[in-house]
Write a structure and sequence with these properties.
With 109 residues, the protein is mainly α. It is 97% helix and 0% strand. It contains one helix and no strands. 0% of the residues are buried. The mean pLDDT is 92.
Length: 109
């Protein structure tokens, strides 16, 4: 082999070593990125689970609120019916008393 060929062969070996180092560096970066992606996926999964738990709790709380509101409305409805009935009886009693007062006034003179 002549000197020129040896130099070219040497340059090729240097370039191959350089390429090998680049490939190893890229492989390390890919491995690091893969680990980071797995970590991100895990974090996203945790966030989704927490969000789902909050949504479920929120839904349960709303159902409790709606139940309480329905109970209160039912209670108010019963109270209003009773009050309405009481007012009606009072009005009837008042009319009866007014008639009796008129009768007494007529009898007295």
């Amino acid at each position: 082999m002549d000197t020129e060929m040896k130099e070219m062969f040497g340059m090729i070996l240097v370039k191959l070593d350089s390429l090998d180092l680049i490939v190893k560096t890229l492989d390390q970066k890919v491995t690091k990125n893969s680990l980071e992606i797995e970590s991100i996926q895990s974090n996203i999964k945790i966030i989704a689970e927490v969000q789902k738990a909050h949504m479920d709790q929120n839904e349960r709380d709303h159902e409790k609120i709606f139940t309480l509101i329905d109970q209160e409305i039912g209670l108010h409805t019963i109270i209003l019916k009773n009050l309405s009935s009481d007012v009606r009886r009072i009005e009837e009693d008042q009319q009866t008393l007014e008639r009796e007062v008129l009768d007494i006034k007529r009898k007295i003179g």
